[in-house]
Design goal:
By secondary structure, the chain is mainly α. Helices cover 65% and strands 2% of the residues. The strands form 2 sheets. A 3-stranded antiparallel beta sheet has the order 4-3-5.
Length: 720
């Protein structure tokens, strides 16, 4: 009779009702209530406890939980194998359990409608054990049928495409399949997809909450110390630390976490074998959850990764980042997360990048223990251009997030650049002009948008540091005002730390990329070279022209503030372009150029020994070449003064270099102008109609007319 109740429609009302009114609900609702005082009190005085002591307490709680979960697993397994009728009832109950908890992963949850965390964790643990036979068996894993997620009759509404509980798919325009779903084995796909959904409702949000709490603990400690407080006696801090340890009992459980890691590598293996039409129908959370789990592990449980195969996870990440999948997976936040995983999990550590991930994760055992990043064939062929594309795509991911993503992308590019296996792919990069220009403009925009602001915030940071270092002056300020100062100071510190790290990374990336002639030539294109010269000269004005080298802050390494190193990186880039006439002219035309600026920069480099040998010689010669170009440019500016209006860019009012026709409005503009506009707005600036750079048409007749006019003017001026 109670089994019959499992499929009763009233169970769909709420997660709480399912827990209370069904047999399995009553079984799975029992777990480890980490929020209960009895659990939190076991971590009393947490600040004074050693890590070993904390681990022993947590392990004790885990042993009790794992013993109970093993009994739950045994009960479910017995019901599943007892015959067709009880199996159907269990499946219906699992369907109901997922449906009534569809909102358990929401940021704002309604605790009166969803099941308890204990229930959701137990549900996912049970489903993980049901998946265990095929997670470790490729033949059985091959029976996971992708048609399950587009067959409402099979998934029972758990993977709905419309309505309040609709799940976003990797691709667009996905609908229910009209083909009959007829898998070779119906139970394996159900277990697989139900397990992925249960994990999305339990461990994934649980890991996110733990990570947020962990960061909050660090922030609280900083605030207390900044106010000369004592973390040992601060009751609020100690309670928050107890909460963190309580949350970690489940999310950092070795047994549970290991099952989760193995499952998501199996998910990656499943997704790898799908064609593009099948892949686009897959729920997006399959990929985003896999990223979230690996991201959490790289921060909090690196030791638990040892010995687990993540080869499928690596290969899927590379595949989804490839240009072939760029149009399929359009969620830029998800694509940014994939790039982060490559950096945080699979990038080997070196002097500039610390990685605690075990080598068994980073390296491919089938290639003699070489890192996946250099041994994988798809990675060798596609990853370098994929990362350049990704660098531009992360523009929309958020201010701080964008900086973090780009620092990681640049580190990956440097690693690939130093690997002979990736040289052929880098050579191909110059062949894709549109993608490269998007990437290069992203680099330049980063420096232009952020560097000036950072150089203004450093003196403000120094002012607060001096205030706090003077106890009498600091005590004389009201508590409310101190709080305001600290909030602004903390925001400035965060901004400077993130931005200077990105700026330093960008300049280094420009340095190593431009050692390749084909890539250097791309930066010399008419629509790129002026922007590059402007950016480099702008940085010089802040470091040399505004005495940026003399700025002082306490603990500059904390803020990634290394002005001499930054000046060195800028001047290395200058020297790599010094022989290019196009670059010399672009520098001379820049509004940031003055003869004194380059002269002072050259003297500073010599004095500090920032450049030596050929690089120093090239930079020194550049000073004179730019001065000559400026004189020639001044002569041309006089000629341009009476140029016909048709020769001037209507948006910039400047003499055009490469006029093009916009077919959507028939207006003529300079190619560089429309190229820059389209980076931020893919429309015709005159009528807002959709437009891409491939649509514009060279205004050859006008260009010839302009050349003839200019030659005649120069000849006439020469005669005079």
């Amino acid at each position: 009779r109670r089994m019959q109740e499992m499929s009763n429609s009233r169970m769909r009302r709420s997660g709480k009702g399912l827990e209370k009114d069904t047999v399995l609900g009553n079984v799975l609702r029992l777990g480890l209530p980490w929020k209960h005082e009895s659990v939190l009190s076991s971590y009393a005085n947490p600040v004074r406890r050693s890590p070993k002591d904390i681990d022993q307490i947590s392990d004790g709680h885990r042993r009790q939980l794992e013993l109970y979960q093993s009994k739950c697993n045994e009960l479910i397994r017995q019901l599943v194998v007892a015959g067709e009728h009880p199996r159907k009832k269990v499946i219906q109950w699992l369907t109901d359990a997922l449906l009534v908890n569809a909102k358990a992963d929401a940021i704002e949850k309604d605790p009166t409608k969803i099941s308890s965390e204990e229930f959701l964790y137990n549900l996912s643990a049970v489903l993980l054990k049901l998946c265990d036979p095929f997670v470790s068996n490729p033949d059985k894993a091959a029976l996971v049928d992708p048609g399950f997620v587009t067959s409402p009759k099979s998934h029972g509404g758990v993977y709905e495409l419309t309505g309040d509980n609709a799940l976003t798919r990797l691709g667009d325009n996905v609908s229910h399949s009209e083909d009959e779903y007829n898998p070779k084995n119906s139970f394996i796909p159900l277990c697989f997809f139900f397990c992925s959904r249960a994990l999305a409702l339990s461990i994934v949000p649980g890991m996110s909450s733990y990570d947020s709490t962990s960061r909050h603990v660090s922030h609280m400690a900083w605030r207390i110390r900044s106010a000369n407080g004592d973390i040992f006696s601060d009751r609020r801090f100690n309670h928050t630390l107890q909460v963190k340890y309580g949350m970690g009992i489940v999310v950092k459980s070795p047994t549970y976490a290991t099952d989760v890691f193995r499952f998501y590598n199996a998910v990656a293996g499943f997704l790898l074998r799908l064609d593009s039409d099948q892949l686009k129908t897959m729920p997006e959370h399959l990929v985003s959850d896999a990223c979230a789990v690996l991201d959490f592990a790289s921060d909090h449980t690196t030791g638990l990764l040892s010995g687990i195969d993540f080869g499928n996870s690596f290969r899927l990440t590379v595949k989804l980042l490839s240009k072939d999948c760029a149009k399929l997976v359009r969620n830029y936040n998800l694509r940014a997360s994939l790039g982060d995983i490559l950096h945080d999990v699979f990038l080997p550590g070196d002097g500039s990048h610390r990685n605690d991930i075990p080598n068994s994760v980073i390296c491919d055992p089938l290639s003699g223990g070489r890192p996946y990043l250099v041994s994988d064939k798809m990675c060798q062929d596609t990853l370098a251009p994929s990362l350049l594309l990704l660098y531009g795509e992360v523009e929309t991911t958020g201010f701080y997030e964008k900086s973090s993503h780009r620092v990681k992308i640049a580190a990956l590019l440097k690693y690939l650049w130093d690997s002979p296996e990736h040289k052929p792919a880098f050579r191909k990069i110059a062949e894709d002009q549109e993608s490269f220009i998007t990437f290069a403009n992203g680099i330049i925009n980063d420096m232009n948008d952020k560097f000036a602001g950072v150089m203004e915030k450093l003196p403000a940071i120094r002012t607060v540091q001096l205030q706090m270092a003077n106890p009498q002056e600091w005590a004389a300020i009201s508590e409310e005002e101190r709080e305001t100062i600290l909030e602004r100071h903390e925001e400035n510190e965060r901004s400077v730390e993130n931005t200077l790290k990105l700026c330093d990374t960008v300049l280094k990336m420009l340095g190593f990329l431009n050692t390749d002639k084909a890539i250097r030539d791309m930066f010399l294109l008419p629509d790129m070279c002026p922007r590059l010269a402007n950016m480099l000269l702008f940085v010089l004005t802040k470091l040399v022209g505004s005495r940026g080298l003399d700025l002082k802050v306490d603990n500059p390494e904390k803020y990634n503030f290394r002005p001499k190193e930054m000046l060195q990186n800028v001047c290395v880039v200058f020297s790599s372009f010094a022989d290019a006439n196009t670059f010399q002219a672009a520098c001379a035309k820049s509004g940031y150029y003055t003869p004194d600026l380059l002269s002072k920069s050259v003297k500073t480099c010599r004095k500090l020994g920032l450049l030596v040998g050929e690089s120093m010689d090239l930079f020194e010669k550049l000073e004179g070449k730019v001065e000559e170009a400026a004189k020639t440019l001044g002569d041309d500016e006089e000629i341009y003064e009476d140029a016909p209006d048709e020769f001037l860019d209507p948006l910039m009012s400047e003499f055009m270099i490469d006029p093009v026709i916009l077919p959507t409005s028939n207006n003529v503009v300079d190619r560089a102008t429309i190229q820059q506009h389209l980076l931020n707005d893919p429309t015709d600036p005159f009528n807002r109609k959709p437009l891409s750079i491939d649509d514009v048409v060279p205004a050859e007749e006008l260009k010839e007319k302009m050349k003839a006019w200019l030659d005649a003017k120069r000849a006439a001026k020469g005669q005079n």
